[in-house]
Amino acid sequence: MPYLPGAFQVKLIVEGMTCGHCVKAVTSAIQKLDGNARVVVDLPARSVRINGAVTPQQATQAIQDCGYNVTGSAEET
Ligand SMILES: [Cu+2]
Fold first, then answer.
1. Would you identify the CATH topology of the domain 10-75?
2. What's the CA gap between 56 and 20, in Å, rounded?
């Protein structure tokens, strides 16, 4: 699915992601909250964008449980 501006309700800045394995770990952690969530990870920008039924607080908790540090969050419209 192509990127649609504004389609992501949650954007987090996550420290410590370095490779595709990290991307998979973060993505599956989010998809445990919402199996249909769309997750786009941008490693250079350290951003995780989420389109799904997930609050920033839930997503932050899930990512921190994987061992990554969430240093910023924003709710997008
Ligand atoms: Cu990794």
1. Alpha-Beta Plaits (3.30.70)
2. 22
- The rounded average pLDDT for each run of 10 residues, N- to C-terminus, in the chain (77 residues) is 59 96 98 95 95 92 97 75
Centre of ligand 1 to C-alpha 16, Å, is: 8
Per residue in 17-48, is it b (16+ CB within 10 Å) or e — as a string?
beeeebbebbbebbbebbeebbbbbeeeebbb
Q: Are 17 and 68 in contact (CB under 8 A)?
A: yes
Structure tokens at 30: 């989010």
Q: What is the pLDDT of residue 37?
A: 94
Query: Where do the domains of the chain lie?
Result: 10-75
How many Å lie between the centroid of ligand 1 and the Cα of residue 33? 21
Q: Residue type for 16, please?
A: G
